[in-house]
Amino acid sequence: MANEQRRFGLGVVGAGMAAKPHALALNALRDRIDVRGVWRRDRAALDAFCAQYDFSVAQSYEALLADPDIDAVLILTPPNAREELVAAAAAAGKHVLMEKPVERTTGAALRIVETCERADVTLGIIFQHRFRAASMALAEKVRGGAFGPLRAVHLVLPWWRPQAGYYDKPGRGTLAQDGGGVLITQAIHALDLMLSLTGPVKAVTALAATTGLHQMETEDLVAGGLEFANGAVGGLIATTANFPGGAESLTLNFAGASAVLTGGTLTVHWHDGRVETEGEQSASGGGADPMAFPFDWHMAQIAEFADAVTFERQPVSTGRTALEVHRLIDALIWSGREGRRVDV
């Protein structure tokens, strides 16, 4: 258990593309987080990463797990490398904060969640869109019942990823490495945020396809109808085939108002004519550069996870909450394949 009188000890595993916002966030949190070491199999890339961000190089994953001052490990590897890493961390009594998705399949994700539960270690999953100021403001209003019952939901993710430089890289958009296409790799953030605000989806009817703009194993466009457990209905379209890419938008239509999250901005249109705006416009990685977004959201989530471990509570985003979005993605893909309505 972390000691409240010292910095939270963290080991980092993985130092690829997804590591940049985490590294920037951890440097900004140096007064609270002690990065005890970073490990990656590619030693040259590891040395360069640690030199760039002023982190210590770990000699092995085993060395990180043996460090008594490490409270948790931050796992940033591709999803096909997760199960063994999590099992070893759990066996060593280390808490785990991990990039989305939990794993490539829901079955593997469930095994990871159960491994951590059996070992009584906390498992957090990075869904930084929940930690935008506008998202948190909307969540507070929804919890307070300010808008009345939810009636309809619209989610649009009009992103772009180029073939050259993105999908041409080995493993990108494959089942073996990523576990799927636009849903599990890109739209999973927006879907998780949606579920955190709307509650569960009970059934879907979807189309999933690969457009002629990409040559890849998995889907780059999904459109679907959503039936929510609370009686609301809605629809989504998620794609990486919308050049040059734009900000995702989530619209929640309540009995008394409509709330629209676009990028980092919340706009509330009340039925009595009032309009309220919160947050600020920011990039979200919807274009050719998938890392073109601020690191503030990662910083907030890492700090929240450390606090959760320290004060022995569950973090906002857990392995169990992540399973809900995994199951929704499964249902959308299955509905697209079968051409029929599928229960979640």
Automatic annotation (TrEMBL):
PANTHER family per UniProt:
D-GLUCOSIDE 3-DEHYDROGENASE (PTHR43249:SF1), UDP-N-ACETYL-2-AMINO-2-DEOXY-D-GLUCURONATE OXIDASE (PTHR43249)
Q: Which GO terms describe its molecular function?
A: nucleotide binding
What species does this protein belong to?
A: Devosia aurantiaca
Protein name as catalogued? Gfo/Idh/MocA family oxidoreductase
Q: Where is the GFO/IDH/MocA-like oxidoreductase domain?
A: 137-246
Locate the Gfo/Idh/MocA-like oxidoreductase N-terminal domain: which residues? 9-125
| InterPro entries to which the protein is assigned, alphabetical | Gfo/Idh/MocA-like_OxRdtase_N, Gfo/Idh/MocA_Oxidoreductase, GFO_IDH_MocA-like_dom, NAD(P)-bd_dom_sf
